[in-house]
Structures are given as structure tokens and as C-alpha cells.
Automatic annotation (TrEMBL):
It is found in: Secreted. Coiled coil: none annotated. One of its GO terms (molecular function) is carbohydrate binding. Keywords: Disulfide bond, Lectin, Membrane, Secreted, Signal, Transmembrane, Transmembrane helix. This is Protein FAM3C isoform X1. It comes from the Eukaryota. It comes from Delphinapterus leucas.
């Protein structure tokens, strides 16, 4: 009887030892796997952080109006585009401020004009003049009233030339334009000049309406231009 009890006790103790051993082994394996996963997660986290830091350091900087390089001191950054056919209006941006665009709902068929103070960069006025179905006289009066030292930005939309006459063309030429003398029906044109300028402006792009090369049916491709306008000094 005692022998049977003793053997049973040994059997129970062995089972307990085995159970404890299995538990400890299972706990060890689980802890090792968890630690590996934790290490992998931390590694991935650090790797992503490092990649993000590299991406931030290599991302090209953004300059005012989205131009390709920063302007020097005492210069105004600008970017502009003509209209696209008779669908999308022109856009004029100066110092990261959109002065005219379809989104602002202040553009229209013809020649779109923004006047800016040459000293401060402040917007003076925006207008558009219909050179297809409108009258050139209001445009001429507007051009004559521009004050010395004013920056003048112009962009065409649809047709900016049909109603232009010699007087209007001459007034725009005096602002520094070269292409205005031969701007034709549905040509695309952008220009930045100034009242009182002594030389021809370097800021002008013009593309002719040509059925053989037009990007759109009846209209040439959009013309774009960017640059840095010298601030007027006292």
C-alpha cells in the first residue's frame, strides 16, 4: 500500500516538473518571438524616420509663385500664363499672391492686365479688355492713365488682337513690349513691363496662331513665363 502511494507521489511530482518545464519553455519561446518582433518594429520605425528625414532634406525648396529659383533681394517674384484656347483663363501671380485667374473670376476674353506698385509690390488694379467683340477706346484710356513706376503684367485669353489699333499698340510698346507690334488674331502672349521703362522688357513670350502647329483647334499652346522684377528704388 505504501509502495503504491509512493509511486503515485513520484508520478505526480514528475508530471508537475514536466508541466513546469513545458510552461517555462513556452514562456521562453514566446518572449523570444515577442522580443524579435519588437526589435523588428522598432527597426522599421527607425528606418522610416531616417527615410523621412532624408526625403525632407532632399525635397527641392518651393519658391514664391512656384518659380524655379529664388529671387535676389529687392526683386519681386512673378509667374504668369496665357489662356488656353477659349476654355481656361490666364493666370498672373506676384510674390506668391495670385492677382488674376479663372478661380478668382477676374479674367476675361481679350487682354488681361494687372497693375502693381513698383516700390511696394501692392496690387493697384486688375482689368480685362475684350479685343474681339469690345471697343479699344476704354483700353486706350486705361493705358494712358497708368502712372510712372507702375509694373504692368498682361496676358491674352482667346483673342487679344483683333480690335487693337496702332495707338493701343504704341502705348503698350512704350511699356517695354516688342511683340505687341505684330500680335495677331488668337496669338498667345504674356508680357511684364512698366510705365517709364527706358529699355525693352526682357519679360515677354509670344506664340503665333498657326493651324499647322496649334496645340488646340484654332489656338496655339499656352505660353508661360516667370522671373524676378527689380523693385523700383527712390
Amino acid at each position: 500500500m505504501n509502495t503504491v502511494l509512493f509511486c503515485s507521489s513520484l508520478s505526480g511530482a514528475a508530471k508537475l516538473v514536466v508541466a513546469v518545464a513545458v510552461f517555462l519553455l513556452t514562456f521562453y519561446v514566446i518572449s523570444q518571438v515577442f522580443e524579435i518582433k519588437m526589435d523588428a518594429s522598432l527597426g522599421n520605425l527607425f528606418a522610416r524616420s531616417a527615410l523621412d528625414a532624408v526625403a525632407r532634406s532632399t525635397k527641392p525648396p518651393r519658391y514664391k509663385c512656384g518659380i524655379s529659383k529664388a529671387c535676389p533681394e529687392k526683386h519681386f517674384a512673378f509667374k504668369m500664363a496665357s489662356g488656353a484656347a477659349n476654355v481656361v483663363g490666364p493666370k498672373i501671380c506676384l510674390e506668391d499672391n495670385v492677382l488674376m485667374s479663372g478661380v478668382k473670376n477676374n479674367v476675361g476674353r481679350g487682354i488681361n492686365v494687372a497693375l502693381v506698385n513698383g516700390k511696394t509690390g501692392d496690387l493697384i488694379d486688375t482689368r480685362y479688355f475684350d479685343m474681339w467683340g469690345g471697343n479699344v477706346a476704354p483700353f486706350i484710356e486705361f493705358l494712358k492713365a497708368i502712372q510712372d513706376g507702375t509694373i504692368v503684367l498682361m496676358g491674352t485669353y482667346d483673342d487679344g488682337a483683333t480690335k487693337l489699333n496702332d495707338e493701343a499698340r504704341q502705348l503698350i510698346a512704350e511699356l517695354g513690349s516688342t511683340s505687341i507690334t505684330h500680335l495677331g488674331f488668337r496669338d498667345n502672349w504674356v508680357f511684364c513691363g512698366g510705365k517709364g521703362i527706358k529699355t525693352k522688357s526682357p519679360f515677354e513670350q509670344h506664340i503665333k496662331n498657326n493651324k499647322d502647329t496649334n496645340k488646340y483647334e484654332g489656338w496655339p499652346e499656352v505660353v508661360e513665363m516667370e522671373g524676378c522684377i527689380p523693385q523700383k528704388q527712390d
